[in-house]
Specification:
351 residues; mainly alpha; two-stranded parallel ribbon
Amino acid sequence: MPATAPSPTSPLAQLPLSALPLACPVPREYHAALRAHAAAYAGAQSWSRSTFELLITLLPYLGLQYLALWPTFPLAVALRVRLFILAHDMAHGAYFPSPTLNHVGASLLMPAAAYTPASFWRRTHGYHHLHVNDLDALDAGWTTAGYAAASWPARAAYAGMHSRAAFLSGVVPAAFYFVAQQVAPGVNWWEWAIEVLVIFAHTARGTLAWDLATATAGAGIGMLLFNVQHTFRGTWRGRSSLSGDWDPVTSAVHGSSLLVLPRWAAWVTAGLEFHHVHHLNARVPCYALAECHAAAGAWFDGVPRVAWWEAVAGLPYCLWDEARRVVARADEVVVKKRRVRVSDEFGGLFE
């Protein structure tokens, strides 16, 4: 079957289709064209589209917040997730044509709708975009070697936080959203104030349990999506300092997933399932990600496609085996019984 040609206006149209499928790592001579293709959509912000997408999400969300009825729980959670994804785009400066409105929108929506201080998100998520899949950074998770060298309490904690039971019960999402990111250095007092106002409003109406439950469920779905976008069987990781095989283009194309979703779920994720495009250029608005992907033709055919249910099935695969270059489960690691130092692979992430 012949490869689909990219859009004639794309920089990728100047490259030979005989180069496909793209090798891994992506050859350096193709990096500039792939980046330029995504960059062409980084200026696709639209007042009409951004306003429309926000209104059809925010207005129903506010309505359900006012009603706070348990039968609306699934829809309320879905709207929370979608609203956070739009706010995530604003934090990247990608959503509205106005940089000021992007900044203000993210600063208000993140704490109000997701109990997430925007200052914390910008700092840690910015780090993620700079170092995703780089084993020499703090963003890529533990390796099997690091896990084996850790103390048993550290191993138990790391494996436990990636267990399906801890995740799906809401323990991990609640601990991260309501504790870890709240006490992180650099959070502004007014971000806490917004969250406290939301809590007081629901407390006064007797609906706090509903609000915290929908927020926890939304946080859980958000964390599952975040995890499966880079941690799945078939992903790619490298090192920037030792072997020198890590590069951001390969990380985007071979280390990011194209999440295959039902149509209703794709509405909730607002285009972020095309995560490879997002990592090629974070300024592409979420409502232009699908178009950017399609315009690349066969150049994105090699992006790993991941079924939606793998977001849960893949949770235990929380380690990277450098020898086999695959994700691995904690129970696959043989730990030698000897005195060791605690692994510090994640130390300093929130400093």
